[in-house]
Amino acid sequence: MANTVWNGSDKSASVTLTGSNLIATSGAAGTFGVRAADKQITGKFYWEVTCNIITAANTGIGIMSPSASLSAGFFTSGFTGSCGLIRTGLIYLDGTNTAAAAFGTIANGTVVGIAFDVDARLIWFRLGAGGNWNNNAAYSPVTGTGGVLTKLGLGIPAFPAAIFTANGDQTTANFGDSAFVGAVPSGFTSGFTSGASIPTNALTSQAIAEQWITTNPILQLTQTFVEQWATVQNVSQQAVVTQMVLEQWASVTVIAPPSADQNRVMILA
Protein backbone atom coordinates (compact mmCIF):
# COMPACT_ATOMS: atom_id res chain seq x y z
CA MET A 1 0.00 0.00 0.00
CA ALA A 2 1.26 3.46 -0.88
CA ASN A 3 2.31 5.89 1.81
CA THR A 4 1.46 9.55 2.19
CA VAL A 5 3.59 12.68 1.56
CA TRP A 6 3.33 16.32 2.61
CA ASN A 7 0.40 18.01 0.89
CA GLY A 8 1.34 20.78 -1.51
CA SER A 9 -2.22 22.09 -1.34
CA ASP A 10 -2.47 22.05 2.47
CA LYS A 11 0.46 24.16 3.64
CA SER A 12 1.41 27.72 4.42
CA ALA A 13 2.60 29.69 1.40
CA SER A 14 6.08 30.19 2.88
CA VAL A 15 6.66 26.43 3.36
CA THR A 16 8.51 24.84 0.43
CA LEU A 17 8.29 21.14 -0.36
CA THR A 18 11.10 19.22 -2.06
CA GLY A 19 12.40 15.66 -2.16
CA SER A 20 9.19 14.18 -3.60
CA ASN A 21 7.19 16.25 -1.08
CA LEU A 22 8.90 14.71 1.93
CA ILE A 23 11.21 17.64 2.81
CA ALA A 24 9.46 20.70 4.23
CA THR A 25 11.36 23.98 4.68
CA SER A 26 10.17 27.24 6.17
CA GLY A 27 11.03 30.26 4.05
CA ALA A 28 10.05 33.06 6.40
CA ALA A 29 9.91 34.13 10.02
CA GLY A 30 6.59 33.50 11.70
CA THR A 31 4.40 30.48 12.36
CA PHE A 32 3.72 28.24 9.38
CA GLY A 33 2.78 24.62 8.84
CA VAL A 34 2.01 21.72 6.57
CA ARG A 35 -0.27 18.69 6.80
CA ALA A 36 0.14 15.32 5.12
CA ALA A 37 -1.87 14.52 2.01
CA ASP A 38 -3.64 11.66 3.77
CA LYS A 39 -5.55 11.21 7.00
CA GLN A 40 -6.40 8.18 9.10
CA ILE A 41 -9.53 7.52 11.13
CA THR A 42 -8.81 4.04 12.46
CA GLY A 43 -5.73 1.83 12.92
CA LYS A 44 -2.21 2.12 14.40
CA PHE A 45 0.63 3.81 12.51
CA TYR A 46 4.34 4.48 12.92
CA TRP A 47 6.41 7.05 11.01
CA GLU A 48 9.56 9.09 11.52
CA VAL A 49 10.56 12.69 10.96
CA THR A 50 14.16 13.93 10.85
CA CYS A 51 14.64 17.43 12.24
CA ASN A 52 17.29 18.51 9.72
CA ILE A 53 17.37 22.11 10.95
CA ILE A 54 15.46 22.99 14.10
CA THR A 55 16.44 26.33 15.60
CA ALA A 56 13.23 27.82 17.00
CA ALA A 57 11.93 26.66 20.37
CA ASN A 58 8.41 26.16 19.06
CA THR A 59 9.13 24.37 15.79
CA GLY A 60 7.61 20.89 16.11
CA ILE A 61 6.02 17.81 14.61
CA GLY A 62 2.95 15.76 15.45
CA ILE A 63 -0.66 15.39 14.34
CA MET A 64 -3.46 17.79 13.53
CA SER A 65 -7.14 17.69 12.65
CA PRO A 66 -8.20 19.00 9.21
CA SER A 67 -9.61 22.17 10.79
CA ALA A 68 -6.58 23.08 12.94
CA SER A 69 -4.96 26.31 11.77
CA LEU A 70 -1.57 26.07 10.06
CA SER A 71 -0.72 29.56 11.30
CA ALA A 72 -0.91 28.53 14.97
CA GLY A 73 1.80 26.54 16.70
CA PHE A 74 1.46 23.40 18.79
CA PHE A 75 2.28 25.67 21.73
CA THR A 76 -0.50 28.18 20.98
CA SER A 77 -3.20 28.33 23.65
CA GLY A 78 -6.51 27.09 22.30
CA PHE A 79 -4.90 25.37 19.30
CA THR A 80 -7.51 22.64 19.27
CA GLY A 81 -7.17 19.45 17.27
CA SER A 82 -3.40 19.18 17.63
CA CYS A 83 -0.67 17.34 19.51
CA GLY A 84 3.02 17.86 18.85
CA LEU A 85 6.56 17.60 20.18
CA ILE A 86 8.45 20.91 19.93
CA ARG A 87 12.18 21.69 19.99
CA THR A 88 12.23 22.31 23.75
CA GLY A 89 11.37 18.62 24.22
CA LEU A 90 7.85 19.24 25.49
CA ILE A 91 4.66 17.64 24.17
CA TYR A 92 1.79 20.07 23.68
CA LEU A 93 -1.86 19.03 23.42
CA ASP A 94 -4.29 21.63 22.07
CA GLY A 95 -1.82 24.34 22.99
CA THR A 96 -1.16 23.17 26.55
CA ASN A 97 2.00 21.53 27.87
CA THR A 98 1.02 17.98 28.82
CA ALA A 99 3.92 17.51 31.25
CA ALA A 100 4.00 13.98 29.81
CA ALA A 101 7.68 14.21 28.86
CA ALA A 102 10.69 16.48 29.03
CA PHE A 103 13.13 15.23 26.42
CA GLY A 104 15.37 18.26 26.57
CA THR A 105 16.33 20.38 23.58
CA ILE A 106 16.08 18.54 20.28
CA ALA A 107 19.27 18.90 18.22
CA ASN A 108 19.64 19.26 14.47
CA GLY A 109 19.59 15.88 12.75
CA THR A 110 17.50 14.15 15.43
CA VAL A 111 15.14 11.46 14.14
CA VAL A 112 11.80 11.49 15.94
CA GLY A 113 9.71 8.30 15.89
CA ILE A 114 5.95 8.75 16.17
CA ALA A 115 3.49 6.00 17.06
CA PHE A 116 -0.19 6.89 16.87
CA ASP A 117 -3.02 4.58 17.89
CA VAL A 118 -5.88 6.25 16.07
CA ASP A 119 -8.55 4.03 17.62
CA ALA A 120 -7.45 4.79 21.19
CA ARG A 121 -6.37 8.34 20.20
CA LEU A 122 -3.03 7.83 21.97
CA ILE A 123 0.28 9.16 20.66
CA TRP A 124 3.92 8.47 21.60
CA PHE A 125 7.17 10.17 20.58
CA ARG A 126 10.71 8.74 20.68
CA LEU A 127 14.10 10.33 19.95
CA GLY A 128 16.39 8.14 17.89
CA ALA A 129 16.30 4.38 17.47
CA GLY A 130 16.68 3.51 21.16
CA GLY A 131 14.98 6.39 22.91
CA ASN A 132 12.25 5.85 25.48
CA TRP A 133 8.69 6.44 24.38
CA ASN A 134 7.52 9.78 25.80
CA ASN A 135 10.86 9.75 27.63
CA ASN A 136 9.84 7.01 30.07
CA ALA A 137 11.20 3.46 30.02
CA ALA A 138 7.89 2.13 31.37
CA TYR A 139 5.84 3.52 28.48
CA SER A 140 5.13 1.57 25.30
CA PRO A 141 2.78 1.77 22.31
CA VAL A 142 2.76 -2.04 22.26
CA THR A 143 1.12 -2.23 25.68
CA GLY A 144 -0.78 1.03 25.31
CA THR A 145 0.89 2.61 28.35
CA GLY A 146 2.00 6.20 28.72
CA GLY A 147 0.51 7.56 25.52
CA VAL A 148 -0.77 11.13 25.37
CA LEU A 149 -4.55 11.03 24.97
CA THR A 150 -5.41 13.41 22.16
CA LYS A 151 -8.74 15.19 22.13
CA LEU A 152 -9.75 14.23 18.62
CA GLY A 153 -13.07 12.44 18.88
CA LEU A 154 -13.63 9.05 17.28
CA GLY A 155 -14.22 9.48 13.56
CA ILE A 156 -12.38 12.83 13.32
CA PRO A 157 -9.50 12.51 10.80
CA ALA A 158 -5.91 12.90 11.99
CA PHE A 159 -3.07 14.09 9.75
CA PRO A 160 0.71 14.06 10.35
CA ALA A 161 1.83 17.69 10.56
CA ALA A 162 4.84 19.96 11.01
CA ILE A 163 4.90 23.52 12.37
CA PHE A 164 7.81 25.92 11.79
CA THR A 165 8.50 29.12 13.73
CA ALA A 166 11.81 30.18 12.20
CA ASN A 167 13.06 30.92 8.70
CA GLY A 168 15.13 27.98 7.45
CA ASP A 169 13.85 25.31 9.83
CA GLN A 170 13.48 22.03 7.94
CA THR A 171 12.22 18.49 8.43
CA THR A 172 12.28 15.32 6.34
CA ALA A 173 9.39 12.92 6.78
CA ASN A 174 9.67 9.17 6.35
CA PHE A 175 6.13 7.90 5.98
CA GLY A 176 7.31 4.39 5.22
CA ASP A 177 8.92 4.46 1.78
CA SER A 178 12.43 4.17 3.29
CA ALA A 179 13.90 2.00 6.03
CA PHE A 180 13.20 3.36 9.50
CA VAL A 181 15.92 4.18 12.02
CA GLY A 182 13.93 2.64 14.87
CA ALA A 183 11.91 -0.54 15.15
CA VAL A 184 8.22 -0.38 14.31
CA PRO A 185 6.17 -1.20 17.46
CA SER A 186 4.46 -4.58 17.28
CA GLY A 187 0.89 -4.23 16.04
CA PHE A 188 1.51 -0.93 14.28
CA THR A 189 1.46 -0.35 10.53
CA SER A 190 4.92 0.40 9.16
CA GLY A 191 4.39 3.90 7.80
CA PHE A 192 1.46 6.28 7.44
CA THR A 193 -0.45 4.87 4.52
CA SER A 194 -2.53 6.73 1.96
CA GLY A 195 -6.29 6.44 2.03
CA ALA A 196 -8.46 5.94 5.08
CA SER A 197 -11.02 3.45 6.30
CA ILE A 198 -14.24 4.78 7.76
CA PRO A 199 -15.20 2.88 10.94
CA THR A 200 -18.82 1.77 11.12
CA ASN A 201 -19.29 3.15 14.62
CA ALA A 202 -18.19 6.61 13.46
CA LEU A 203 -20.80 6.59 10.71
CA THR A 204 -23.47 5.37 13.09
CA SER A 205 -22.63 8.03 15.70
CA GLN A 206 -22.79 10.74 13.06
CA ALA A 207 -26.08 9.42 11.78
CA ILE A 208 -27.68 9.26 15.23
CA ALA A 209 -26.57 12.81 16.05
CA GLU A 210 -28.04 14.12 12.84
CA GLN A 211 -31.32 12.26 13.30
CA TRP A 212 -32.01 14.43 16.34
CA ILE A 213 -31.53 17.72 14.49
CA THR A 214 -35.20 17.39 13.54
CA THR A 215 -38.07 15.35 14.91
CA ASN A 216 -39.59 14.92 11.45
CA PRO A 217 -39.08 11.19 10.65
CA ILE A 218 -38.75 11.83 6.91
CA LEU A 219 -36.09 14.47 7.37
CA GLN A 220 -34.33 12.30 9.94
CA LEU A 221 -34.00 9.47 7.45
CA THR A 222 -32.76 11.74 4.68
CA GLN A 223 -30.25 13.45 6.96
CA THR A 224 -28.99 10.07 8.12
CA PHE A 225 -28.14 9.02 4.59
CA VAL A 226 -26.45 12.33 3.84
CA GLU A 227 -24.23 12.19 6.90
CA GLN A 228 -23.23 8.60 6.28
CA TRP A 229 -21.67 9.68 3.03
CA ALA A 230 -20.25 12.99 4.27
CA THR A 231 -17.15 11.27 5.66
CA VAL A 232 -16.35 9.29 2.52
CA GLN A 233 -13.20 10.71 0.98
CA ASN A 234 -14.02 10.27 -2.70
CA VAL A 235 -17.26 11.14 -4.43
CA SER A 236 -19.07 8.01 -5.60
CA GLN A 237 -22.20 7.12 -7.48
CA GLN A 238 -23.85 6.27 -4.17
CA ALA A 239 -23.03 9.72 -2.84
CA VAL A 240 -24.59 11.31 -5.89
CA VAL A 241 -27.76 9.29 -5.37
CA THR A 242 -27.80 10.40 -1.73
CA GLN A 243 -27.51 14.03 -2.80
CA MET A 244 -30.47 13.55 -5.14
CA VAL A 245 -32.53 12.20 -2.25
CA LEU A 246 -31.56 15.25 -0.21
CA GLU A 247 -32.68 17.60 -2.95
CA GLN A 248 -36.02 15.84 -3.24
CA TRP A 249 -36.77 16.64 0.36
CA ALA A 250 -35.36 20.17 0.32
CA SER A 251 -38.83 21.63 -0.09
CA VAL A 252 -40.21 19.86 2.98
CA THR A 253 -40.98 22.33 5.75
CA VAL A 254 -38.44 21.99 8.56
CA ILE A 255 -40.03 22.02 11.97
CA ALA A 256 -38.55 23.52 15.10
CA PRO A 257 -35.48 21.80 16.56
CA PRO A 258 -35.89 19.57 19.59
CA SER A 259 -36.23 21.00 23.06
CA ALA A 260 -33.29 21.81 25.26
CA ASP A 261 -33.95 18.64 27.24
CA GLN A 262 -33.67 16.55 24.07
CA ASN A 263 -30.41 18.27 23.23
CA ARG A 264 -29.04 17.41 26.65
CA VAL A 265 -30.00 13.78 26.24
CA MET A 266 -28.30 13.67 22.83
CA ILE A 267 -25.09 15.17 24.24
CA LEU A 268 -25.07 12.74 27.18
CA ALA A 269 -25.61 9.80 24.84
CATH architecture of the largest domain, by name, is Sandwich
Number of domains: 2
| Count of alpha/pi helices | 4
The gross shape turns out to be globular
Radius of gyration: 20 Å
Strand content: 25-35%
- Poorly predicted tracts of residues: 200-215, 224-242, 244-269
**Could you tell me the mean pLDDT?**
81
What is the string of SSEs from the N terminus onward?
Answer: EEEEEEEEEEEEEEEHHHH
Structural class: alpha+beta
Straight-line distance between termini: 37 Å
Number of strands: 15
Helix amount, in percent?
10-25%
Question: In summary, what is this structure?
Answer:
With 269 residues, this protein is α+β, with helices and mostly antiparallel strands. The chain has helices spanning 200-211, 217-230, 237-248, 260-268; strands at residues 6-11, 15-18, 23-26, 32-36, 44-53, 60-64, 82-86, 90-93, 96-102, 110-117, 122-127, 148-149, 159-164, 170-174, 189-190.
